[in-house]
Amino acid sequence: MRHRLITALSAAALLGALTACQAVQDAGNAADKTSICLEALRLANFSPSTQNLEQTAQDAKKTSEELTGLAERAADTTLRDAINGMAEQVQSLSVPNLDPTTVTNWAQQKLNAFTTLAQACG
Question: Cβ of 16: how many Cβ atoms within 10 Å?
């Protein structure tokens, strides 16, 4: 009888420890998601400059790479897909053909990607 009580108490303690570990992991995942979202939304504010096309191309490439790196860190697949979508949108900017119509169309598509990202972060 005493052995069963010790076994039951040990099992209860182990279950409590596992539950506490899961709660800590869940809190860590939420903090990671929050920090990833904040950084992704900051990067998603990328805007092209028609004044310096070379710099715009470099900035678009760098921003896209940074977004892709964030997506790799995201555990949530919806968030990962949204960040990758934003990275693809930033990278899709056709710098050699940058004119007001191109920028307007690109900006609308970027807004759609931004909305998807914001929803994934919500």
Answer: 10
76-106 burial, b at 16+ Cβ within 10 Å, e below that, comes to beebbebbbbbbebbeebebeebeeebbeeb
DSSP, res 99? -
15-18, long-range: CB within 8 Å, 24+ apart, which pairs? none
Contact indicator for 71, 83 with CB cutoff of 8 Å: yes
Q: What is the pTM of this model?
A: 0.73
Q: Which helix (H) or strand (E) holds 58?
A: helix 53-73
Number of helical (H) and strand (E) elements in the chain, helices listed first: 4, 0
CA–CA dist 45, 34 (Å, integer): 17
Strand, coil or helix: 67: helix
Question: How does pLDDT run across 55-64, given as a tens digit for each residue?
Answer: 888 999 999 9
